[in-house]
Write a structure and sequence with these properties.
- The structure is a single chain.
- The longest helix has 24 residues.
- The chain is 48% helix and 0% strand.
- It has a domain of 56 residues.
- The chain contains four helices and no strands.
- It is mostly helical.
Length: 124
């Protein structure tokens, strides 16, 4: 088996273990039967995403805090570049494939401005 399949199977096992724990926890005396619904849905979503051969994860942290190093360690390879300065300051999507390639997609100025307009609504 390749590393991807091993990793996928490991994630599925962890998901199954967490789902079993959530079922036990929701049956505890005094526990609201709906307390764990969001977590159960998340576990179901993980299985759905894996069935599509797509894993979605967000790694967020301060600049130079080791996010790329963490992802490389998680994927057991050297896929994301690391170095001096800000290297991976954009959304990075990683897909399983036969070769190491990169495709960059840039937003139009209209898209950027629309996002700024939506963000400004949050300010008082």
């Amino acid at each position: 088996m390749d590393r991807y399949s091993d990793f996928k199977n490991e994630l599925l096992q962890i998901r199954a273990d967490v789902s079993a724990l959530l079922e036990k926890a929701s049956g505890l005396p005094g526990a609201d039967s709906h307390s764990f619904d969001n977590w159960k849905k998340t576990c179901g979503d993980i299985e759905t995403q894996l069935s599509y051969e797509m894993i979605r994860a967000a790694v967020v942290g301060a600049i130079k805090s080791g996010k790329s190093t963490f992802v490389n360690s998680l994927l057991r390879g050297d896929y994301l570049k690391r170095g001096a300065g800000v290297v991976t300051s954009i959304v990075t999507r990683i897909h399983n494939g036969q070769s190491l390639t990169a495709t960059l997609y840039f937003k139009s100025w209209d898209d950027v401005n629309a996002e700024i307009e939506r963000a400004l609504v949050l300010f008082p």
